[in-house]
Amino acid sequence: MRRFSILDLRFSIGRSVSLFTAIVISTFLTAAVFGQNDGTEQNQTGRAGTFAIVNARIVTVSGATIESGTVVIQNGKISAVGANVSIPGGAERIDGKGLTVFPGMIDAGTNLGLGEITLGVNGSVDLAEVGNINPNAKAIRAIHPHSSHVNVTRVNGITTVMSAPTGNGIITGQAAVVNLNGSTQAEMALVPEFGLVINFPRISTFGGFGGGGGGAPVEFSEAIKRRDAQLEDLKKFFRSVENYARSKEAYEKDKGLTYIATDVKLEAMVPYVRGEKPVVFTAERERDIRAVAKFVVETRLKGILLGGQEAWKAADDLKKNNIPVIFTNIYNLPVLEDHPYDYFFEGPSKLQQAGVKFCVSTGSNGEEVRDLPYQAGIAGAFGLTREDALKSVTLYPAQILGVDDKIGSIDVGKIANIVVADGDILEPRTNIKYVFINGRMLPLTSRHTRLYDSFKDRK
Amino acid sequence: MRKAFVFLLVVSLVTISPTLVLAQTGSEVLIRNATVMTAAKGTLEGTDILVRNGKIARIGKGLTAAAGAQIIDATGKFVTPGIIDCHSHSMVDGSVNEFSYSVTSMTRVRDVLNPKDIAIYRALAGGVTAANLLHGSANSIGGQNSTVKFKYGKPVEDFVIADAPAGIKFALGENPKRTHVQLQPGQTPRYPRTRMGVMETIRDAFLRARDYKQALADFRVGKTKVPPRRDTELEPLVEVMEGKRLVHAHGYRSDEHLNLMLIADEFGFRVATLQHGLEAYKIAPEIAKRGTGVSIFVDSWSYKLEAYDSIPYNAAILWKNGVNVSINSDSDERMRRLNLDAAKVMKYGGVPEEDALKMITINPAKQLGIDKRTGSIEVGKDADLTIWTAHPFSSFSRVDMTIIEGEVYFDRAKDTQMQEQIAKERQELEKMDVNKAPSSGGTSPRTPSERRAEERDEAEFGGNQ
Lengths: 459, 465
Description:
The structure holds 2 protein chains of 2 kinds. Chain A is built from 12 helices and 16 strands. Chain A is an alpha/beta fold. Chain A has a domain of 303 residues: Metal-dependent hydrolases (TIM Barrel, Alpha-Beta Barrel). In chain A, the strands form 2 sheets. In chain A, strands 1, 2, 3, 4, 5, 14, 15 and 16 form an 8-stranded mixed sheet that branches. In chain A, strands 6-7-8-9-10-11-12-13 form an 8-stranded mixed sheet. The longest helix of chain A is centred in the middle third of the chain and has 34 residues. The radius of gyration of chain A is 24 Å and the shape is globular. In chain B, strands 1, 2, 3, 4, 5, 15, 16 and 17 form an 8-stranded mixed sheet that branches. Chain B has a 6-stranded mixed sheet with strand order 8-10-11-12-13-14. Chain B is globular, with a radius of gyration of 24 Å. The chains are: A alpha/beta, B alpha/beta. At the A-B interface, helix 2, helix 9 and helix 12 of A face helix 1, helix 2, helix 9, helix 10 and helix 13 of B.
């Protein structure tokens, strides 16, 4: 007998109809049976409505904490906040007694959705394009809306992430700011093309920029030369983007000029080179961070630093040039043996003392983004106040990502990205009771609760 | 330039550290007025702990100490037993894997321990006092482990817990299969390459060990005239079958851990711990029935295929089934925050506070067979204690002091002084001719002889987690 395969669809109309019908029916059945299924197959998108969380403690983050009050969610936004607010008729009341309302947390330095299983399952990995210059690679085109990292992360109170392309190239692509809900990338997108990511050419005696390269170690002076050459190439590329943009504009004004063919890479660069959108630079060491600051000034860019191990040492340069830091190093070991044990635990508080804008980020591929609150807590144990620790994963990242008019605090008019918990959300023992994203109440199910339910009673 | 002074600093740090790290203790230490989380008999408020000759002598209120005793005021602070990490590769110098064969039971972690590994100090600063130092997981049967206390500043002999039962590392799944490691051109794959082969490699080793044991027995009773040649590969496996050596078996998928337990059933031994056991929740009754322990990552998942079904509720399901669960780090980094890992099991599945604390203290002590001397705060036990600024399950807590057998090995106040001293020393070293940049007339950098942490991580890549 001939082996039946899905390819037969192409050759046998009659059979393909029946197979197609079978697929449709089974899909519906699966959807019905696993209505609460929240694995990679389909992330549940929750339900919209008018909600009033009453009698709750409200940590607005932007202003004073309200010991007992109401938050109203309407049309996806926060429509009222206060101790005494009128609740619209028909609103679904949620008793917030003993509970606290927080803004959803934001991780400004992840690769969430771009790599489900990064070791050994290459088909699930879309982290890094081939080549050194990929400004037209857009994370928003590859972030998997149905990744299980989405559901696992949001049920712990993180509602928004910046997700960035990565790799060993210099320009790795454009990062997106997304909410952790939606059936499509468009539904998730808050800022679909948020920022250009550049692995800043660094002085390294082992290999080149970004950390890759390999090869035999070189003399330090050689490493500087190599970095300078890479930097010069980058500057040249920036200049060619400017020339390209000017030529395009000139042609638009005077069609009599020679037509300039569109170049996808140069085209993608224009808003960044012109300082209209931010450029996210990855750099860790003081000398490289100072070089970033210099580059940002020279090229008049809107710069953001991602990583920032020694950012506090270059605080003067960062502060002077308004370069904020997305600090991703709490869970990293100190680099040198003589570094203090709390070298990176103290990173955020040192940045704050120096007056540099910062936020705390996991820097995770996705699976560890849910630890964001505890990383902020550790920064709290080593210098930040509790209030600032909370801000470092709510309002501060919103400000750095330029979305503080939309998210990051409990204020009227902002998007209803809200978390309700039975304690301080930065504490690992706290239970999350409700999560809203864009005003939709989400099921607190995840790939993990599903597996838990499947096996918890096995005898 | 940088490397040169790093080298010098390493040398100087090692030279000065013992006097700075170790407090001069008399025979008695009195910790006063703490919230004591015993991991045995609940939490005691406003309680004192009297330590005499390295042992816990008394626990109670209003205790007094002999003249000259070290008094530690712990008002407003929390004391727990020192944390025990049941899966670590700290101190293991160089590669943690003897890659050449898939059965390397003759190798010993004990032979390559570095007592000056900075990871020890950082672990102490996270409240860890003891660890199970394991061979890597590249081999179906790896090397023999070492159970140690982190007596940083002491000679390596002092680290090893002399009366801890011997153990050995086994490994299942992706790591011993080595299928996720790209072969170089011309390189042939090593057997085993599948889960079938891994199981048969282990079974074959035990069949040979059984024959060896028989040959020894035959010689002993005079049945044969010539003794069998001593076999250091099979000796440890004979000890396993005789219940004298604990098996710590790395694995992820529930089926492979169950298959190993079936092999153990066949050869009449009990697997001491399933290491990682990220899917152990799927076979909790089978594990409970055999009295095997499980030492887990609390919530790591999705970093490779066999970790995709890992859930943070794993501990809770195992705990409800009566399995002895410990939470380990397998990482110099994660080791520093096992307290927060333990806190998570309260949230995921509702494990009570004391049982959560046990998962990083007395439970791993039981798994390693050192529970008679350490792992809980009880009279007569070793005074292995951690003092915290706040509840250890709070992310805002910090370790104030870590004590092993009555001696202070980490003291936050002293560390602060030491940081200043080292920073000053670094400044002075930077000014020295040898450390000047080549552009300012200095010499070319030298390569540090000390191994750096990331090099070990590289060696371990795909070989441990």
